[in-house]
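Example (one chain per record):
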Amino acid sequence: MSAQNGRAATFKASKLSSRANVARAVSVSRNVGTVRSTRSSVVVKAEKKELMMWESLREGLDEEMERDPTVCMMGEDVGHYGGSYKVSYGLYKKYGEMRLLDTPICENGFMGMGVGAAMTGLRPIVEGMNMGFLLLAFNQISNNCGMLHYTSGGQYKVPMVIRGPGGVGRQLGAEHSQRLESYFQSIPGVQLVACSTAKNAKALLKAAIRSDNPIIFFEHVLLYNVKGEVEGPEYCQSLEQAEMVRTGTDVSIFCYSRMRYVVMQAVAQLEKEGYNPEVIDLISLKPFDMHTISNSIMKTRKAIIVEECMKTGGIGASLSAVIHESLFNDLDHEVIRLSSQDVPTSYAYELEAATIVQPEQVMDAVRRIVGTKVAA
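Predicted structure:
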């Protein structure tokens, strides 16, 4: 028996059957923290064009505000200034101050105002100038936004979207480089979505605005100028469905947000070496799309999770736990997690780069988990 087969045999010893747990994992993942399912049919229109991601978000916001008069937006500089990354640029002039509300620098105040607006029948979008600042509104997000539907016995729903820029930018320093996905993941009643392209950013934002659930919508600060094709005004994308970026057979690589591009950089080199990885953009960070995740792992029997979140208590930790609990018998190797270092992000570029996952780390992980390949 080869060393690799011996390792796999040892790893799979004394395991309970896991396939029976897959359906349970799918059911739990789709219901924990969700008022009701938002998975819906995708409507595709032929109309397409190319936009930067900030432009596609702006277009989606504009279309939803025009379609539904209950949609409004509030936050610091979202009106006159058009948002810190211009997502609401020009909409103040079109819709006025009652629907594009500039607020004081008081995150807990305007977050609570957004919750109240949602309870009275509006569909507010609350922008955090930086997602790190939303820590100041954690009480309103957790105790009000996430729980009110439950604590009111279903008398109130909170159809609101909390969105804004986050992630590690370019020398923005520790406070402006936070990844708060894992902070919010533990809040019952809140869904988490991370966009990654111009196309899915617009389609997911439109779906989030139409949802009756409170959605925290993560936009990476370095992706706003990424250009791509977007669909027409009737196209929405499921908030609970992962996106197959690349099909493959060697290993399943799960990523989201900016790490999608880091992974694909690595894949470009790995293909030359004969590797055939499958790449899946999670998109839904809560609940996980266990249907797509399970099908991929049952095919490749290996999994790598790549995230910009911290390793301790991160999104990867949660997903790894679910995979090991539900798909243990389908794995030939333990799940590998590639995450940011558990340190504050440095302002110095070299130190900043050293704290987050780089393409070389993804390549090394694939070589390690798959073994040596001979390029064709």
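Caption: Residues 13-31+241-370 form a domain with the Rossmann fold fold (CATH 3.40.50.920).
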